[in-house]
Amino acid sequence: MEYNEDLKGNVVVSEDVVSSIANLAATEVEGVAHLHHGITGGIAEKLGKKSGSKGVRVVRSDDELIIDLYVDVDFGVQVQETAEKVQRKVKTTVEAMTGTRVIQVNVNVDGVRMKATID
Q1: Per CATH, domain 15-113 is 3.30.70.1350
Q2: Which of 14, 31, 55, 66 could cross-link with 59 by S-S, CB 3.0 to 4.6 Å?
Q3: How do the domains of the chain map onto residue ranges?
Q4: What is residue 8's predicted lDDT score, i.e. its pLDDT?
Q5: Residues 6+ apart with CB under 8 A from 97
Q6: How is 37-81 classified by DSSP, letter by letter?
């Protein structure tokens, strides 16, 4: 396959794709139990409005992204440390996969869950 230097155009990654990437990246962080819709996302979903990937809201401003995440963490984790890990993981993963600069990752910790144990 030959590269054509005269080729012009744009590549735009949709907010839904960014939401999916952010969701997967966040759930890879140890201590994150679950992502879920924030209060407004849950209301929008009940009204039948599309609210993007579960637990993630993406705002695009020019060529930059702001990502809001709504998570539950596992009982016993250090919440601040876990949230900071989520911020770093989501930022680096989204930027690496999309080439779009992430200027802010807001982690909203809405709950604590007990880990399921198998005896």
Answers
A1: yes
A2: 66
A3: 15-113
A4: 83
A5: 21
A6: --HHHHHHHHTT----STTEEEEEETTEEEEEEEEEEETTS-HHH
